[in-house]
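Retro notes, item 3 of 5
We never archived the inputs for the tryptophanyl-5'AMP complex last cycle. Fixing that now. Sequence and ligand:
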Amino acid sequence: MTRVFSGIKPTGHLTLGNYLGAMRRWVQVDQHRADALFCIVDLHALTVEHDPARVWRLSRQAATLLLAAGLDPTLCTVFVQSHVDEHARLSYLLECVATDGEMRRMIQYKEKAARERERGGSVRLSLLTYPVLMAADILAYGTDEVPVGDDQTQHVELTRDLAVRFNQRYGTTFVVPRATHPAVAARVMNLQDPTSKMGKSEDVGPGIVYLLDEPDVVRKKIMRAVTDSGRDVVYDREGRPGLANLLEILAACTGGNPEDLSGVYESYGSLKKDTADAVVEVLRPVQERHRELCADAGYVEGVLRNGAERARAMARPTVDAAYRAIGLLPASADIGVSV
Ligand code: TYM
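Structure as it came back at the time:
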């Protein structure tokens, strides 16, 4: 059976971008057709300045929202990264395979480090090594497919490179995974700045729709979305990014195609209104279920506890095999090595 692994970082409230780019496919497709693991990757949230209490709260909220969105713990494994030591154990080995140059070429590192320096802050070493930990997340589970939004493509490519290099040097240990992306909305853009991604970590504001935004807030944000000059509704990602973003959001929410939808609308106003209605309808059941789950903290805790146990058992053999392959003595008494 295909093994699927994906993760979400508790660095901010989850957004419509997270939902359409990743979570929705996990719920509607991946958990039904694959042996799937979905992880709240909390260690990744420590790579930038953070408030411990906030990371704690956001991790909990992310877990609750994943379940509210429809992940079913009888079909898939939902867990928290820091509950499974294998991620950090494997990450160090992969650091011994990755190169400094490779890390410095990562786009997200360059952007985030530049932002941090602009603010006068210091760049944590873990921000540089973050993609290696992500590779460990994926490789520990013998993952075949990694369902993600567009922005994670480079990280998954690096994961593939590290897997191949490790296998060549030390013997076949890892499955070489591949990224999968949704047909539309693989990169939902900020409604106020449609040339940059709708990201949860970067900022707050009117350009980001959060999964827990009230319907009237969602409507307001979408009705005020920046559109491009011009009057006709056409789908042109390069030339008319604001409009294209709305068409993609609408297509993703209604199961349509942005190109076809552009022919349906004569004004920006009616496109915005329908997009707002569609988003509100997509979020409504998630928000309702989230309210119910918030009243049942024991349930979420139980899911995460069981999930971590299952994940540990899945990751352990691969990570142990990597330790042996790279030349580390097994801890057990019978090491089977003659000196
Ligand atoms: P994160 O937490 O930034 O995002 C989680 C998922 O949501 C997708 N996504 C988007 N898709 C479309 N449009 C957007 N505006 C948008 N914003 C976010 C992301 O592509 C991602 O699929 N490094 C990862 C977390 C991670 C991970 C992993 C993912 C750590 N280890 C192993 C997969 C496998 C990240 O920061 O995702």
